[in-house]
Design a protein that fits this description.
Radius of gyration: 18 Å
Number of strands: 17
Distance between the termini: 24 Å
Strand content: 25-35%
Strand order of the largest sheet: 4-3-7-1-2-6-5
Structural class: alpha/beta
Order of helices and strands: EEEEEEHEHHEHEHEEHEHEEEHEE
Oligomer: single chain
Largest sheet: 7 strands, antiparallel
Length: about 280
């Protein structure tokens, strides 16, 4: 992770893409450093809220020097963001967190050989649930750029399938909805079962119950899994200690089995964290 810094960006575009969910592109020098699974802190303009709001990176456009975030309104800060128009100046802290180790993953992935030997093969599988879907877009994009087409399973509340078309540019997209209005009725793991998908490895982001289920599934199947625990972040900069989680290894500095999700994570190997 490169050093974080506070910079000023500029809104390029913003649109509402689902109830309470907004798609925001910003011009910022941070784009040249950003990668899949990382996040930025965006400061509310009103000055009443001192800490930035941590929001995951959805897509990176290094040529334009732009970052895309897709966020849900959950409080006063994000409600303020939703009012922003093009050319609005924005204070941003970034780039934050450690993302998905795409290069390491591809170096160790043997799925292409497995596909030749086993009926149905094995796949790199991306699992995104709710507002954990946006980080899957940049991840899928980076994997695609390396010649790997992942299976992307996105879990929604209902038929508002935000980002599904964008994801389809970089992999095979399957969907689950809680109410059964689109795709498989149920969750992302139900999709794997119904479609007979056999993961070689999993990368996931979503609400904590989903991540616990993914961790258990990966352990049962003997599959390596990377999970992003960003749901539990508060300040996003390591100041509040509200995102500390238990780990299986001792921290070399504190000598306790703890890690701050916003600084040591948010992406961890599933077997390394207790959730």
């Amino acid at each position: 992770m490169s050093g974080k810094k506070k910079v000023q960006g500029r809104v390029l575009s913003q649109q509402k893409i689902a109830p309470g969910i907004y798609d925001l592109w910003m011009e910022t020098e941070l784009a040249k450093e950003a990668g899949a699974g990382q996040f930025i802190g965006i400061y509310p303009e009103d000055g009443a809220h001192l800490l930035p709001r941590p929001i995951s990176i959805c897509e990176v456009d290094k040529e334009r020097g732009a970052l895309r975030v897709v966020y849900r309104i959950v409080g006063a800060g994000t409600a303020w963001f939703a009012t922003w128009k093009p050319k609005q100046k924005v204070d941003i802290l970034g780039v934050l967190g450690n993302g998905y180790p795409v290069r390491e993953i591809l170096e160790n992935y043997t799925g292409k050989e497995n596909k030749k030997e086993e009926p149905g093969g094995r796949e790199i599988v991306l699992l995104g649930g709710g507002i954990g879907i946006p980080p899957m877009l940049e991840l899928a994009k980076e994997l695609s750029a390396q010649g790997t087409e992942p299976v992307i399973v996105a879990g929604y509340r209902d038929q508002n399938l935000f980002l599904a078309d964008d994801l389809a540019k970089y992999g095979r997209v399957l969907t689950a909805t809680e109410d059964g209005s689109a795709g498989v009725k149920g969750n992302v793991l139900d999709v794997l079962s119904k479609e007979g998908i056999r993961p070689a490895l999993i990368m996931a982001c979503g609400p904590m119950p989903m991540l616990r289920a993914v961790k258990a599934f990966a352990a049962k199947e003997g599959v390596l899994a990377y999970i992003s625990l960003e749901e539990r972040m508060a300040c996003g900069v390591g100041a509040c200690l509200g995102c500390v989680c238990k780990t299986t290894r001792k921290d070399p500095h504190s000598h306790v089995k703890n890690a701050r999700i916003c600084t040591e994570g948010p992406v961890f190997e599933a077997g390394e964290v207790e959730i």
